[in-house]
Design a protein that fits this description.
The protein is an all-alpha fold. Helix content is 86%, strand content 0%. The longest helix is centred in the N-terminal third of the chain and has 43 residues. The two termini are 33 Å apart.
Length: 264
């Protein structure tokens, strides 16, 4: 009888959780649809200048026109550059963090430089990167790496340095060497930190790619935004921004899904 009662309570709890998720999603969709409808209405009655702010119907037409031309090419270029920059930032960030954790001397030496580099607006390095790497995809990937790498190093290194000291001391009493402490305690304890850094890293990589495409590119969503602004095609700019938002959401959810798989 008691088991049935517990089971029934569990069913009621899960039902309420599901209803709450549905309610939240419904409100989100209502806000989005209402905002789009209001935008269209205000543009049609002249309250909003559709030339400056565009409007949903014109964005749809622009999207259909792009779909029949080179949209997939521009989308593929931006996604490829983002994924490459993201992967390089994640791998190099972890390796640098391990090196700095391994040597406290190096960590103390590097600390002020990391802080300065983290505070420096990376877009200011754009002309330098272009001169060093060349005006091409390489410069865009380096820009993405420059924006995401330092944040990744700081976050992961902070997690490494704040690993439970009691566990490390206990391992040392059993004569564990530094490599064993790293692989058996520090890295496993910081899997959540690593996954959180990936969530931040994917967004920063996309920001870096778009910043690079603003400076030097012949394809990509950033190129479309700049081109649309130069020729006063605000429909193209707004369409590209919306597509970029969707891409950012998909990439973020991909990292979230990866985190769920790893946690399992």
């Amino acid at each position: 009888m008691n088991k049935k009662a517990i089971s029934q309570d569990r069913i009621i709890y899960l039902r309420k959780q599901r209803q709450n998720k549905i309610a939240i999603f419904s409100v989100q969709m209502a806000i989005m649809i209402g905002g789009i409808a209001l935008w269209e209405i205000l543009a049609n009655i002249g309250v909003i200048d559709s030339f400056i702010a565009s409007q949903p119907s014109r964005i749809v037409k622009t999207f259909l026109n792009l779909s029949g031309n080179d949209l997939l090419t521009h989308l593929g270029v931006t996604c490829f550059e983002t994924i490459i920059g993201f992967e390089l930032g994640a791998v190099l960030g972890v390796l640098i963090s391990i090196i700095l954790w391994w040597s406290k001397f190096l960590a103390k030496v590097a600390d002020p430089f990391l802080v300065v580099l983290n505070s420096l607006p990376k877009i200011a390095l754009g002309p330098v990167i272009i001169i060093w790497v060349g005006a091409g995809m390489g410069a865009i990937i380096v820009m993405a790496l420059a924006i995401s790498l330092i944040v990744t190093v700081l976050e992961i290194l902070n997690g490494f340095l704040n690993t439970d000291e009691e566990l490390i001391k206990m391992a040392k009493t059993f004569h564990a060497n530094k490599l064993q402490i790293l692989t058996k305690i520090v890295i496993p304890a910081n899997i959540p930190t690593f996954l959180n850094s990936l969530k931040v890293n994917i967004g920063l990589s996309l920001v870096g790619v778009i910043s690079g495409e603003f400076l030097v590119s012949k394809a990509g969503l950033g190129y479309l935004i700049v081109y649309g602004g130069q020729v006063f095609q605000l429909d193209l700019v707004m369409t590209s921004v919306i597509i970029l938002s969707i891409v950012a959401a998909i990439l973020y959810q991909g990292v979230v899904l990866l985190g769920r798989v790893v946690n399992r």
